[in-house]
Design a protein that fits this description.
Length: about 90
């Protein structure tokens, strides 16, 4: 409800410019985390340890950090010229 009020009623959209690469290159943003997740899983390095936590705040913070990292990865891939299209 807050986001609806902020973006549609108040027409304040500049706060979301950091999410633009995810919207412009959505297929890459959708597929890259799966590929990266499986590469991390196959390496055996416990990078995604937040997933095993019993504290919900750690899980939420880790998931938010992972999502922002994927938006950054999408931005880097877009800048490098990597775009997946149907």
């Amino acid at each position: 409800m807050f986001l609806y009020w902020l973006t549609d009623i108040r027409n304040i959209k500049s706060w979301a410019t950091f999410l633009r690469p995810a919207g412009e290159n959505s297929l890459t943003t959708y597929l890259a985390p799966n590929i990266l997740y499986h590469l991390i899983w196959m390496s055996g390095i416990p990078v995604l340890i937040y997933k095993q936590s019993s504290d919900p705040l750690i899980v939420i913070a880790g998931s938010l950090a992972w999502a922002l990292l994927m938006v950054g990865l999408a931005a880097l891939l877009t800048r490098a010229g990597v775009r997946l299209r149907l």
